[in-house]
Write a structure and sequence with these properties.
21% strand; alpha/beta; 39% helix; 6-stranded mixed beta sheet
Length: 214
Amino acid sequence: MNIKERTAKDLLSIRAVFFRPEEPFIWASGIKSPVYCDNRLTLTAPEVRNNIENGLAQTVRENYPDCEVLMGTSTAGIAHAAITGHILGMPMGYVRSGAKDHGRQNRIEGRLEKGQKVVVIEDLISTGGSVIEVVDALREAGAEVLGIASIFTYGMQKGIDRLNEANVKNVSLTDFDCIAQVAAQEGYIKPEDVQKLIAFRNNPSDESWIGGNK
């Protein structure tokens, strides 16, 4: 079993992925989604957590061998960056969504020297906006961002385009398509639901999939 399928099975086994094709979740952006992925639940499932963090460490080793520092996204990526950094024996820090309004008013926490090669650790990527803000903050601080290592990506075209425009690479342990297929194979959803899920992924603004027209 490859890492993509194993991660999908792990996330499904601890109910970190919720499916509601007939009663969609509404994201903060207003997008209606048949799927909600809560990777924070991996932290309270030791066996799955071990697989995830070792998978992220392997991803960094194989795809970003020159990495010098890991930087987690706030807040979901912080714990994953810390554990992965421990496995790799590598420094880590994190980037806030905005600068603090007290103390040293840092946005980047942890020591980061100009020119250091950084990999961003993220839990999931949908439209890519929040992780690109983190990449921009690190670049403004003088870091060389090698790319992103994430647990899950929806693979939405908007997210792919944004990452390309920002000239930043992302490698995810698993993705939306794989989770949909594994979920159908293992009985979490009906086989006919896969088509609805992929229709959503292809065009989130077209809600006709909710009624099953696609």
